[in-house]
Structures are given as C-alpha cells and as structure tokens.
Amino acid sequence: MAFVDYYKILGVNRFANQNDVRRAFREKAKSLHPDINPDLHAHEDFKKINEAYQVLCNEEKRRMYDMRLRNGFPSQKVYYRPGKVKYRARGDRYARYDTEADANPKMEKIEKYFDLVLFLTLLFAGCFAMIYGLYRLLVKQPEEINSVPGILMGFVITVMLIIIWKYKKKFSE
Q: What residue ranges do the domains of the chain occupy?
C-alpha cells in the first residue's frame, strides 16, 4: 500500500493554512466533480481530493498525518496515544506504536474487569430495587409510602444501564 501525499493531491504546500486548503479543494472539485467532468476516472479523482480535504482541514487528523509523513511510516498502520515513550518525534504530543497492544497500557485489562464488576453491581442494585418495590406494593402494602415511582425509576435506570452497556463501543468512538 503506497503512501498518498494529500498535499500533492490538492496542490498546496505543507505549511498551507485552512483557507488555502479549502480554496485548493474547491478549485479541484469544480473541475473533477463527476457531474461536471465526463471522464471515467473523475469519480476516483474526486474521492481522492475529498479524502485529502477531510484529513487536511481537520486539525487532529492533519497533525497525525503530518507525523506519519515526517516519521516515515507510510505503509503500516500506526497507533497513537498521548504520553511519554521513547519513540516520539520532537515536538509531537502523540507517541508512535507498532501494535495496538503497545499503544494501550496494561491497565486497560483491569479497567475492563472493573467496568464489568461495576455494571453487574449496578444491575443487581436496580433489579433488587424493582423486586423489593414490587414486594412492598403487592405483599406488604405500606400505608403512607407509594412504591410505584421507585419501581418505575428502578426499571428505567436498569434498562438505560443495559442499553449503554450494549452500545458502549459506539459511545466511546
């Protein structure tokens, strides 16, 4: 897989600001848009300039792209995270790692177990609250206390907890 130079694709230098990148993208887009250009390769060329624009107009993506370009790791997937390590270029706040396991600290395994224990504890508490509320409502009815709002609140919180746990990877992205 060859490394694509987004600066060459848009025709701007490496020190171009956001306005220069935007201007270059619009000029290229006017000539390469598939609705305007009947060339068969116009669609692929338009995709390339669009990808280049998406990377170079976003500060974080551009910083990561520039670091990969500067460090010379064009053909491999590179993982980054903030922190102190020995493989960091001068002035970069992000460190380069060869594998995702190296990029993620060992504490992540403990954090996963802690998340699971916390989830199960809260799920147990929510289910216990609902069962106790139903018991108080159906078996031992109190004179002054209404158990229905507690049951509903326990149900809502338990359902929300299960939904968040199910889609936690989507939320973290």
A: 6-103, 107-172
